[in-house]
Write a structure and sequence with these properties.
The structure holds two protein chains of two kinds.
Chain A: H1 8-21, E1 37-38, H2 40-43, H3 47-50, H4 55-62, E2 70-71, H5 72-82, H6 88-99, H7 109-120, H8 126-140, H9 150-158, H10 163-166
Antiparallel strand pairs in A: 1-2
Helix pairs in contact in A: 4-6, 6-9, 7-8
Chain B: H1 2-14, H2 31-43, H3 45-54, H4 56-80, H5 84-101, H6 104-136, H7 159-178, H8 186-207, H9 213-240, H10 244-254, H11 256-290, H12 313-317, H13 346-376, H14 385-392, H15 401-423, H16 431-468, H17 476-479, H18 481-501, H19 508-541, H20 549-573, H21 598-635, E1 651-652, H22 655-672, H23 679-701, E2 702-703, H24 714-739, H25 757-766, H26 769-778, H27 781-821
Parallel strand pairs in B: 1-2
Helix pairs in contact in B: 1-5, 2-3, 2-8, 4-6, 5-6, 6-8, 7-8, 8-9, 10-11, 11-13, 11-22, 11-23, 13-24, 16-18, 16-19, 18-19, 18-21, 19-22, 21-22, 21-23, 22-24
The chains are: A mainly alpha, B mainly alpha.
Chain lengths: 171, 822
C-alpha cells in the first residue's frame, strides 16, 4: 500500500480483476510470490482499456520486459499511476513513455504522426498531419532539436489544464 | 546448515524476476531474506492482512516463521565469530543487489545494506524481541544507515553516530512517504521499501539506547499504532463513499461532463445529510422526546374546527392537519426556556441550529471553491494549442464504443477546425452576421424572461382573487395554479433557451455557460416573484387590506388577544362573578381560539413547493426521457421517417437543466429550513431517490452528446452559482429574524419582540455575570466598527497581494516566451 495510491480494499479489488482475466493462471494466494504474467492481449481487452487508442503503448510502458506482459505488480502500478491521486509529475513521466513509440526517449516526428493517426483513426489527410506535427514541434520544442525531449514535454504538459482529468482511468 | 540455506537465499535474491517468497525456505533474519519475505508480504499486503485477521493458520504460520527466524538468528550468532565467509558472501550478494537496483536511493540502501549487514548480525540478538513485534505489524518506518560501517558489537555507539543514524532514519522515513511518487517499477519500489523498513525496525531500539530506551520504544510503538490506525481509517473512509461504481459507469459511457453532474449531486447529498443531522438531532428529537406531548398545549393541537379532516390523506399530503401540528413545523415548538430533565434550552437550540446550518453551508461552499481554484491553476494559455490537443484530448475514462466513436469524431473535427484556423488568416466574412445573430438571441432570451415573470405575477394575482372569493368554489387547478405554472415554466423555458442558443453558434462549453446563466435568471425571477406573492398572501390571510404587513400583523395580534380575553371571560361568566382570584379552568386545548402563525404557513409553502418540484422532475424524467425512448424504439418500425436520427430521437442528458434544478432546490431548502425543520430530511430523501432514478434514466434512455466536451472548470461555475443562491436565500431568513416580531401564539420565540432576543436571554440567565459584561463591552459599536474596518482593510490587502502575484506570474511567462523564441 505504500508503493501505490490505492487503499487496501482497492488493491484487493484489483487482484480480483486480474484474477478474472485468467482464472486458471493467476493464483488467488500471493503469499508465495508467484511469478505470473498476463500477456498483452488479455489486458488490452479489459473494458477500461478496450476503447483506448493507446492501449498497447500503455501496457508496454508498464511492463517489465517491454513486451507488454504484466505481472500483478505492474498491473497495480499501472492503475495506480493512472488513478486520480497520482501527482502530475508522475503522470507526465509515464505519459511521455506512452507517446514515445520508438522508445528512444524522445518524441520525434514519427511518434507524433503515429499518435495523431491513432487519435483521429486516420481521418486526416497527409498534409494535415504534417501541418499538425510541425505545429506541435514548433510549440513545444524548447531546445530546438526538432523533437520533444522529456523536459519539453513536461514543460508543455504541466500547463495543460485538462491533463490531469483526461489522463485518468477509474477502476 | 546455515550457510547452505544462506546460499539458497542468495541465489533466490539474485534472480530478480523470480523472487520466491522465502517464507518456505526457513526464516533467516538476514536482510535479504526479510526483504524477500517482506516483498511477498508487501506486494500482496492487503491479502496478508486479511489472512492475518481471519486465518489463524496463517498467523500461526507467520509466528512459526518468526520462531524459526529466531532460531536461525541464534545460529547466525554462533556463526558470527567465524562469520567472515558468510559476511563476504553477504557483501557480495548485497553488492549484486546494489547493481541490480542501481538508483541513487538504492545505492544508499545498498551501501547501507552492506554496512548494515554486520551491524544487523551484531544487533540481532538484542533486537529479537522488537523485531518479532515489529514483524507482526505493518511497517511504515524506514531506517537508513550508511557509513557507520565498522562497529562491532563491543563498541558503544557514539553520540555523533547516533545523530547521523537519526538523520538517516528521517531520510529513509521520507523516502517511504514519497515512495509511491517515484516512477520506478513496482519491484524496485517494493524492494527499496522492505529494505528501508527492515533497517528502521533494526535501529529503532539502537537509537533509543542509553537514553530512556523504554520510553523511546514505547513512543515508537505508539507512532506505529497511530500510523496503522490512520491507514485503516483512510481505508474505511474510501469504503464509505457511496455510488462510486455507478458514477464510474456513467463516466465511461457519457464522458466526464455528465458524470460531473452526478458527482455534484453526491456532494450535495453529503451536505444535506449533515444539515439533516443538525436539525433532526438538535431540534426535532429533543422536542419530540422532552417537550410537552401532542395535545397538551393549544399550539400543539389540531383546532376543533379542523379535527374532522385532520387525518385525511389529502390534508396530510398538503401538510396541514396532523402534519402541521407536529415537530415538522415551526408552530409546534413551545417557548419554554428549558425543557425536560436535561434542561435542554429549546429556543436557543432552534435559533443556533438555524444560524448554524447557514454558516456551515457557507463555509463548505467556499472551502470547495478554494480547493477547485487551486486545482485549476494555470490560466488561459493558448500557447500550446496543438500540443494539448494531441496529448490531452483523449479522455482515458471512456470505456464504451459509442462514446469512443463520438470522441474520435470530435477530436478529428477539432483538429480540422484548428487546422483551418491556422491555415487561413482570420475569416472576416460573416462576423457581422454572427454578431447580429447573437444580439438577436439575447433579445429573444430577455423577452422570454420578461414574459415568464409577468405570467407568474398574473397567476399569483389571480390566486389572490380566488382566495378572496373562497377556495372551495374552484377546482384543483385553480388551487394549485401558482405551483403548477412555476413548474411548467421551469420545464419549457430551458428548452426554449436551448433553441435560441442554436442561433448563437458558440463553442459548446461557452454555450453551456450562457444556457446556465439564462436559466439561472429565469429561476431567480420566478423565485422572487413567488416570494413577493407569498408576502401578499400573508397579507391576505390576515384579511385586512392594509398595505403594511407588519402593522397588519400587529393589529391582528391585538385583535386576537382581545378576542381571547373576551372568550376567557365568557368561560368565567358561567361560574364565578369576580375574575380576580379565579381558579384556572380546564379547557380542552383544541377549543382555544388560535392566533395567526405565519411562520408555519411559510414553512408549509416551502415544503409544498419542494414536493411539487420533486414530483415535476420525476414526471418529466419519466415522460420526457423514458416514454420518448420507448416510443422511438418501438414505433420506429412503423413510422415514415427514421425516428432515431430524425425528430424525436433519444434525448441527451440535459446537464444545465439538472444542475440548476439541483441548485435551486437547495436554495429553497436553505430558505425554508428555519421555518420547517423537516425540510432537510425531505431533501435527503429526495436526493437519494433522485440519484437512483437519474442514474437509471441516464443509462437507459439517454444517448451520449454529439460533441463530447470536458467538464473542466465548470465545477467552479456551479459552486459560484451555489454561493450566490445561498446568499440570496439567507436574506429573507435573516430579515425575519432581525426585524419581524415572531407570532405571539406559536413557535419557540413567541412572546419575545424579536427572535434574536433569545441570545440575550441566555446570556443573562445561563452564563456568569462577568460574561454578560464582557459581551456587553464587546458588542459596543465603538469596538465593532474598528473590527469591521480591520477586516475590510485586510481583504483589500490580500486582494492587492494576489493581484501582484498574478502580474508577476504573467511577467515570468512573458520572459519564458521570449527566451523560447530566441
Amino acid at each position: 500500500q505504500d508503493c501505490t495510491f490505492f487503499t487496501r480494499k482497492e488493491i484487493l479489488r484489483l487482484h480480483g480483476r486480474y484474477y478474472e482475466m485468467a482464472p486458471n493462471v493467476v493464483p488467488m494466494d500471493y503469499t508465495r510470490d508467484p511469478d505470473v504474467k498476463l500477456p498483452m492481449q488479455l489486458i488490452i481487452n479489459m473494458p477500461e482499456l478496450k476503447e483506448n487508442p493507446f492501449k498497447e503503448r500503455i501496457v508496454e510502458s508498464f511492463s517489465e520486459d517491454g513486451e507488454g506482459s504484466l505481472s500483478f505488480n505492474d498491473f497495480v502500478d499501472m492503475f495506480s499511476v493512472l488513478s486520480e491521486m497520482a501527482p502530475r509529475e508522475l503522470k507526465a513521466i509515464y505519459a511521455f513513455k506512452i507517446y514515445d513509440f520508438n522508445t528512444d526517449n524522445f518524441i520525434c516526428k514519427a511518434d507524433l504522426e503515429k499518435t495523431l493517426n491513432k487519435l483521429t483513426r486516420e481521418e486526416l489527410t497527409a498534409e494535415e498531419i504534417t501541418l499538425v506535427c510541425e505545429k506541435v514541434i514548433e510549440e513545444a520544442d524548447m531546445d530546438g532539436d526538432g523533437k520533444l525531449g522529456f523536459a519539453d514535454f513536461e514543460n508543455m504538459i504541466s500547463k495543460a489544464p485538462d491533463f490531469l482529468s483526461t489522463f485518468h482511468i477509474r477502476i | 546448515d546455515g550457510s547452505d540455506v544462506d546460499n539458497e537465499e542468495s541465489s533466490a535474491a539474485e534472480n530478480d524476476d523470480n523472487v520466491k517468497g522465502t517464507d518456505k525456505g526457513g526464516k533467516k533474519t538476514t536482510p535479504r531474506t526479510r526483504r524477500g519475505r517482506g516483498r511477498g508480504r508487501g506486494r500482496h499486503g492487503g491479502e496478508e492482512d486479511e489472512e492475518d485477521e481471519d486465518g489463524t493458520r496463517r498467523a500461526g504460520h507467520r509466528r512459526n516463521r518468526n520462531r524459526r527466524g529466531r532460531g536461525r538468528a541464534a545460529e547466525n550468532e554462533g556463526n558470527d565469530s567465524d562469520g567472515g565467509a558468510e559476511k563476504d558472501r553477504k557483501n557480495q550478494t548485497n553488492q549484486k543487489s546494489k547493481e541490480d537496483d542501481g538508483d541513487e536511493e538504492d545505492e544508499k540502501g545498498g551501501r547501507s545494506g552492506k554496512g548494515k549487514n554486520e551491524k544487523k548480525q551484531d544487533k540481532k540478538p538484542d533486537k529479537k524481541g522488537k523485531k518479532e513485534k515489529a514483524n507482526k505489524k505493518k511497517k511504515d518506518k524506514k531506517k537508513s544507515a550508511s557509513g557507520s560501517d565498522s562497529d562491532s558489537e563491543e563498541e558503544p555507539i557514539t553520540e555523533e553516530e547516533l545523530a547521523k543514524l537519526k538523520e538517516e532514519v528521517e531520510e529513509k522515513k521520507k523516502l517511504i512517504a514519497t515512495l509511491r511518487n517515484k516512477p520506478w517499477k513496482m519491484k524496485k519500489k517494493l524492494s527499496v521499501l522492505k529494505e528501508a523498513q527492515l533497517f528502521v525496525e533494526k535501529f529503532e531500539g539502537a537509537l533509543g539506547k542509553g537514553k530512556g530506551k523504554k520510553f523511546y520504544a514505547y513512543k515508537v510503538m505508539m507512532t506505529k499504532k497511530w500510523m496503522k490506525f490512520q491507514r485503516d481509517f483512510e481505508n474505511f473512509k474510501t469504503a464509505c463513499i457511496p455510488w462510486e461504481m455507478k458514477i464510474k459507469e456513467i463516466e465511461s459511457h457519457f464522458g466526464s461532463s455528465v458524470a460531473s453532474y452526478f458527482i455534484f449531486l453526491r456532494w450535495m447529498y453529503g451536505i444535506n445529510m449533515i444539515l439533516f443531522g443538525l436539525t433532526f438531532g438538535l431540534v426535532m428529537v429533543p422536542e419530540a422526546l422532552m417537550g410537552k406531548p401532542y395535545g397538551s398545549l393549544p399550539r400543539k393541537t389540531v383546532p376543533r374546527a379542523e379535527e374532522a379532516t385532520a387525518m385525511n390523506f389529502a390534508t396530510l399530503w398538503d401538510f396541514s392537519g396532523f402534519a402541521q401540528y407536529s415537530v415538522l413545523f415551526y408552530g409546534y415548538y413551545n417557548n419554554q426556556r428549558t425543557i425536560g430533565w436535561l434542561k435542554f434550552r429549546m429556543p436557543l437550540s432552534y435559533f443556533l441550529v438555524g444560524v448554524g446550518t447557514i454558516g456551515y453551508s457557507f463555509m463548505i461552499v467556499i472551502r470547495t471553491m478554494a480547493k477547485n481554484a487551486n486545482d485549476d491553476g494555470g490560466g488561459d494559455d493558448t500557447s500550446f494549442n496543438f500540443s494539448w490537443k494531441m496529448f490531452t484530448s483523449w479522455d482515458y475514462l471512456i470505456g464504451n464504443p459509442e462514446t469512443a466513436d463520438n470522441k474520435f469524431a470530435s477530436i478529428t473535427t477539432s483538429f480540422k477546425e484548428a487546422i483551418v484556423e491556422e491555415q487561413e488568416s482570420r475569416k472576416e466574412e460573416n462576423i457581422h452576421l454572427t454578431r447580429f445573430l447573437r444580439v438577436l438571441a439575447n433579445f429573444l432570451a430577455l423577452c422570454t424572461l420578461a414574459g415568464s415573470g409577468y405570467l407568474i405575477f398574473f397567476v399569483v394575482r389571480r390566486s389572490q382573487k380566488f382566495a378572496l372569493e373562497g377556495l372551495e368554489n374552484y377546482g384543483w387547478w385553480e388551487r394549485n395554479e401558482v405551483n403548477m405554472v412555476m413548474s411548467l415554466l421551469g420545464m419549457f423555458c430551458p428548452t426554449l433557451f436551448d433553441v435560441i442558443s442554436s442561433l448563437e453558434n458558440y463553442h459548446p462549453r461557452i454555450a453551456l455557460r450562457w444556457q446556465l446563466g439564462r436559466i439561472f435568471a429565469l429561476f431567480l425571477g420566478n423565485l422572487y416573484t413567488f416570494i413577493i406573492a407569498l408576502m401578499d398572501e400573508i397579507n391576505l390571510k390576515a384579511r385586512y387590506l392594509l398595505p403594511f404587513t407588519i402593522f397588519n400583523m400587529y393589529l391582528e395580534e391585538k385583535i386576537v388577544k382581545y378576542n381571547m380575553t373576551i372568550w376567557e371571560a365568557s368561560l368565567y361568566n358561567g361560574t364565578i362573578p369576580e375574575n380576580s382570584t379565579a381558579p384556572p379552568i380546564e379547557v380542552d386545548p383544541a377549543d382555544v381560539p388560535r392566533g395567526p402563525c405565519w411562520e408555519t404557513m411559510v414553512g408549509q409553502e416551502f415544503v409544498r413547493l419542494t414536493v411539487s418540484d420533486t414530483m415535476t422532475t420525476y414526471i418529466t424524467i419519466l415522460i420526457g426521457d423514458f416514454l420518448r425512448a420507448v416510443f422511438v424504439r418501438f414505433f420506429n418500425y412503423c413510422w415514415c421517417w427514421d425516428l432515431e436520427y430524425g425528430f424525436p430521437s433519444y434525448s441527451e442528458f440535459d446537464i444545465s437543466g439538472n444542475v440548476l434544478g439541483l441548485i435551486f432546490n437547495q436554495g429553497m431548502i436553505w430558505m425554508g429550513s428555519f421555518y420547517a425543520p423537516c425540510l432537510p430530511a425531505i431533501n435527503v430523501f429526495r436526493l437519494h431517490t433522485s440519484m437512483y432514478l437519474q442514474c437509471w434514466a441516464v443509462m437507459c434512455c439517454n444517448v451520449p452528446q454529439e460533441r463530447v466536451f470536458k467538464a473542466s472548470r465548470s465545477n467552479n461555475f456551479y459552486m459560484a452559482m451555489l454561493l450566490f443562491i445561498l446568499f440570496l436565500s439567507t436574506l429573507p431568513a435573516v430579515y425575519t429574524i432581525v426585524s419581524i416580531p415572531p407570532s405571539f401564539d406559536c413557535g419557540p420565540f413567541s412572546g419575545k419582540t424579536r427572535m434574536f432576543e433569545v441570545i440575550s436571554e441566555t446570556l443573562e440567565h445561563d452564563f456568569p455575570s462577568w460574561f454578560g459584561k464582557v459581551f456587553g463591552y464587546a458588542s459596543n459599536p465603538g469596538l465593532i466598527l474598528p473590527f469591521i474596518l480591520l477586516m475590510v482593510l485586510s481583504i483589500y490587502y490580500l486582494n492587492a497581494t494576489s493581484k501582484s502575484y498574478k502580474e508577476a506570474n504573467l511577467e515570468l511567462k512573458k520572459k519564458l516566451q521570449s527566451v523560447r523564441n530566441r
